[in-house]
Amino acid sequence: MAAPSRGALTTLLGALSNTKWTLSRTLQSTNRNEFNGQLLGTASFSQLPAGPDQIQDWLYTETGQFPSSSAMPPALAAMAHATWSKKYIWRLSDATLPLSAWFVKIGSGPDEADYLFHNFDFISEANIAIDSENYDAPFPLLPAGVQSENTYVLQARGDHLCINDMYRTAYTFRFKRDTEELISWSSLHVVRGPAKRQEITNQYLPLRE
C-alpha cells in the first residue's frame, strides 16, 4: 500500500500528540528471568522544533511503575515499585516511507534521534488478512468497545534487527469515520532470535482526567 499522504500523517501525529494516553502493556517471554505479565502506565507525544529538509520530529514518552515484588521474577525483585520509562522519536520526512521511529540519544542533552528503529510500512484493510498469514507479528487486537461500523483502522508494520534478534512490529490506529477522531491505538512487538523469544502488546486509550 502506498503510504498515506504527508497531510494524513501530520493529522495522525497531531491526534496522537493532542491526547495523553493510558498504556496497558502485556509482556510474554520464554526467559524466566524476564518480566512476564501486565504493566500499566501513561504515554504522550510532543512536537519538537522543525529540522532541515522538511523533517519534523515528535517525541514519544512512556512511563509507569513496576508491580510488587510478588509479581516479579527473583532476578528483578529489587525493581519492585520502581519507575520505568522509555522514549522514541517519530519522524516525518519526504522519504519513500515518510514515517519512521528512532531511538533517542542517551545523555543529558536535548532529546534527539540517534539511530533508526523502523520505518512504518502501511497496509490496506483489504490485504490485512493475507499479510498477517505471512508475517511473524499479527496485527494487535483492538481494545474492547471501540470496534464498530462507525470506525476504520490504519495499520502499519516495521522491522528492526538487533544483532541477531529480529523485532517485528505491527501498529493499529482506530478512527471515528464521522469526526476522524483517533479513539485508540495499539502495537505488538514480536521478538525472535537466539537471545530472545518475546511478545510485547501495547494498548492505548485516551486518558480520562
Description:
InterPro entries: DUF6314 (IPR045632). Pfam families: DUF6314. The protein is mainly β and 209 residues long. It has one domain: Lipocalin (Beta Barrel). It is built from 2 helices and 11 strands, in the order H-E-E-E-E-E-E-E-H-E-E-E-E. It has helices spanning 6-17, 128-133, and strands at 21-29, 37-47, 56-65, 83-92, 99-104, 113-119, 121-123, 151-162, 165-176, 182-192, 197-206.
Which structural class should the secondary elements be placed in?
A: mainly beta
CATH architecture: Beta Barrel
Shape: globular
Q: Give the distance, in angstroms, between the N- and C-terminal Cα atoms.
A: 37 Å
Question: Radius of gyration, rounded?
Answer: 17 Å
CATH topology: Lipocalin
State the major sheet.
11 strands, antiparallel
Report helical residue fraction: under 10%
Poorly predicted spans = none
Pfam family, one: DUF6314
Organism: Penicillium malachiteum
Domain DUF6314: 20-204
Protein name: DUF6314 domain-containing protein
